[in-house]
């Protein structure tokens, strides 16, 4: 039986961080054996905010390199750059005929962007969900590993697919958000303010490109308090977060020791952070080094992008042929 198609897109903005790793990339890596996987860098989507051209190119390469460093295998999945697959733009055009100004203006992300940059309300921004639907439908994907913040975009993708099927005949299966084992591991910012972020509070975010010293410094500065005052206390979120990080990068013995110290009210956060910092350095260092090597090897990187684009275009081509026939007769 054919494997189900999984697809997800990553915007090439900012540096990838631990939150991305545990919220997304680690799951992609798990999916690559089980599904027919398409992962791509959404560089067309980035154009809505008019980024510097050179920086965009560098960011695209970094995202490709970091995803491979995290374990994505370009021989197993199609890892490609959106702009290398022109069939997506063609499908976007057809879907634009089925998407309405009113519904697009109502989406939360659009309203948010209008509020944040009222001087750049371009049509690309308005039709962002249409392009995202084209990304998904071009491979007739059914499983889309994304966070909760993408639920509305997913719902719109299903609406467009349904409208297309209704008007032109059954062409697309319905795509749904999907993640392994229910809840994703959420990584909070080290200052206790919200999630780790690509662009905000960089001193409280651990990036996959961080040098050893930066990792140590950030962890030693992580927010703590004077410690629990009663045995087996409930942990506040910024303390829980340190334990979450420790569970991810340290051995179970180490985690147990600090859990016991916490429950017995004898925990020394300074010691815990020192241990966490070293284990984190050992976790991030090989990823950082592999990604850096790859970014410096333009030839290999180009070959990987070409391999991904070829795979993606083979699949996109099959879909666009069906679509043309359905729409144009
Ligand atoms: N909008 C997504 C984000 O902000 C990125 C994205 C673009 C995407 N196209 C997609 C995600 C298709 C899943 C499927 O993260």
Write structural notes for this entry.
The protein is mainly alpha-helical and about 325 residues long. It has two domains: about 5-185 and about 300-329, 3-Layer(aba) Sandwich (Rossmann fold); about 210-290, Tyrosyl-Transfer RNA Synthetase, CATH 1.10.240.10. Helices cover about 55% and strands about 5% of the residues. It is built from 14 helices and five strands. It has helices spanning about 20-30, 45, 55-70, 85-95, 100-105, 110-115, 125, 130-135, 150-170, 210-220, 235-250, 250-265, 270-295, 300-329, and strands spanning about 5-10, 35-40, 80, 145, 175. The strands form two sheets. The protein has a three-stranded parallel β-sheet with strand order 1-2-3. The protein has a two-stranded parallel ribbon with strand order 4-5. Strand 4 (about 145), helix 9 and strand 5 (about 175) form a beta-alpha-beta unit. Helix 3 packs across helix 13 and helix 8 (about 130-135) crosses helix 9 (about 150-170). The protein is elongated and about 75 Å long. The model has no long low-confidence stretch (mean pLDDT about 95). Tryptophan binds next to strand 1 and helix 8.
